[in-house]
Amino acid sequence: MTSEPNLLAVIQRQLSELNKSESKVAHAILNAPEEATRLSIASLASAAGVSEPSVNRFCKRFGATGFPDFKLQLATSLASGVRYVSRAVEFSDDINTFPVKLFNNAITALMTAKEDLPLKAIARAVDQIAQARRVYFFGLGTSAAVARDAEHKFFRFNVPVFTHEDPLMQRMLAASAGVGDLFFFISHTGRTKVLIETADIVRQTEASIVSLTAEGSPLAQKSHCCINVTVEEDTEQYLPMTSRLVQLVILDVLAAGVTLRRGEGFTPHLARIKDSLKDTRFPTS
Amino acid sequence: MTSEPNLLAVIQRQLSELNKSESKVAHAILNAPEEATRLSIASLASAAGVSEPSVNRFCKRFGATGFPDFKLQLATSLASGVRYVSRAVEFSDDINTFPVKLFNNAITALMTAKEDLPLKAIARAVDQIAQARRVYFFGLGTSAAVARDAEHKFFRFNVPVFTHEDPLMQRMLAASAGVGDLFFFISHTGRTKVLIETADIVRQTEASIVSLTAEGSPLAQKSHCCINVTVEEDTEQYLPMTSRLVQLVILDVLAAGVTLRRGEGFTPHLARIKDSLKDTRFPTS
DNA sequence: CGGCTTTTGTAAGAATATTACGAATAATGC
DNA sequence: GCATTATTCGTAATATTCTTACAAAAGCCG
To answer: Which pLDDT belongs to residue A134?
Structure first.
């Protein structure tokens, strides 16, 4: 499965290097991609104003074995949700375009992350969490919200979980750590100074560090176990959006892992927690 | 574009109602879906141990106009990333299966939401946020983390933003609201009593209510503008996972909307905020 | 067991895609 | 500016793939 990012983008990019009839075909396809997947070679040829073999040659030029194969690839790359060649939101966008773009970005980020999950690290992290006496989730900025989310998930496992957004609190807790304590750091960049300083403090104790951050970053280097999330995101220009989504799903994965670890006997406990919320809600009509 | 969720799932579901040769074809396809998209009708027929017309009839039974059309649909639904028929994590799952399942669930949730975005409500919400004098993001439980995330996003727009997880604080702030205040409620169910009571309090003031919640829920009914997120999720049995992802992306959409609204002249302001963080990080090597 | 319906395969036919080849066009050299 | 060559393109034949019509087989009920 050669994961050519997006056939349409490839065509778009090579547009200038195509000869006359090939470029006619290219335009016909770019104008109505989804329709092209349904057309026969004859229909597409006439729509583009060229002959059938020209269409066939076009397909082969782009790596397909023939027209049917090309249609298949086209359909696949359309379905991947990454329809739009340009991913970034621009000021010319309107309500009909930018929401879809953002959703597509989020979807591709998750799909990319899915392809390359650090399963070993995840398994190890599940181990550590399942055995920990206490777990601290620390993040700053956007990652603080992720940490908060993690807290809401993990407290259900009978493990005392703590979150603090205040760096000073984080430091003090780090300093008073001991055996069985687990510090779970969340950071997109892995370069936030105060967070790394806190990690340094933890390293002087018997506690262990798991982090969800960028590969090879200073924070990653200080961790006993690091779950790498490599989401390429233009953080310089835009706000981090997709990376935190990936982080959240990874935390879901960890939570599920701990649940599985606890075994089926644990479900009643989870059910009890659920039930405790029942009276806080209006019943469904 | 009839968004049939997933062809494989449909086949799986109808498996028991198929006759002998149809079920042979079904199994052949379910065993090797991606290969089936590349096979000719003759190859698939022999792989399944049936005749070509049987395969053809099978295709028509599932809504395709013929075999090529079927292959197209199959390719499309495979590309959507939702390869696995069973969505729920089971106790028999191991590290190789459940992370992928969870990612797939997240991806489909976003894709489904994308298909049916309430653009009008989003546009209205952007209007309201852009004009508001103050914005309060209120949520409880998991949604509190989402609210926190929203706070981190929206403060950049020079609009005073507030989040509080404490229901009592939420009530008091609601009571002291006035013209130009905007209360943004986030709730998966839309049925949380304390949150709805707070909404009631807001309604007695001049402030307005925007909510991100389930369609038709009590909370939705009390809102001036409601962004419906219909994520079908078994909240009774599992923790809400996918719904909050959709909520987060919707908030990204709103943030992007406000940015576009502010116009290009606003980018320097955003850049300044970015820059302010520079010294908190270790430089990239 | 015999008539009925349903299911399935055979074989012919239609549609579709591919290849080979030659004509047209453009490019290069003199 | 003309001849030569290379590239591009379309026609037509061929091969492949799909669909349909029909009949045989299998299952069902009296």
So the answer is: 93
User: In angstroms, rounded to a whole number, what is the distance separating the alpha carbons of residues A280 and B121?
Assistant: 28
List residue ranges whose Cβ is under 7 angstroms from nucleic strand D: A 19-22, 50-54; B 40-42, 52-53, 56, 59, 65-69, 71
Whether A120 and A170 share a structural domain: yes
Q: CB atoms < 10 A from the CB of A66, how many?
A: 11
A23: containing domain:
7-79
Asked if residue B103 belongs to a domain, the reply is no
Which pLDDT value is given to residue A85? 41
Give the whole-angstrom CA distance, residue A173 versus residue A167. Answer: 10
Whether residue B119 is found in the same domain as residue B252: yes
Mean pLDDT over the full length of chain B:
85
Average confidence (pLDDT) over A234-243 = 68
CA closest to C1' of C9 belongs to B51
Distance between CA atoms of residues A258 and A243, nearest Å? 23
> Do A127 and A255 share a domain, yes or no?
yes
C27 C1' – A19 CA distance, angstroms? 14
- For B196-207, the DSSP string reads HHHHHHHHTSS-
User: Hey, which residues does B68 pair with through a beta bridge?
Assistant: none
User: Which of B83, B86, B66 lies closest to B75, judged by CA?
Assistant: B83
How many whole angstroms separate alpha carbon B202 and alpha carbon B213?
A: 17
Q: How many domains does chain B have?
A: 2
The answer to whether residues A146 and A70 belong to one domain is no
Answer yes or no: do A260 and B93 touch at CB < 8 A. Answer: yes
**Chosen domain end from A79, A103, A127:** A79
Residue A171 maps to which CATH number?
A: 3.40.50.10490
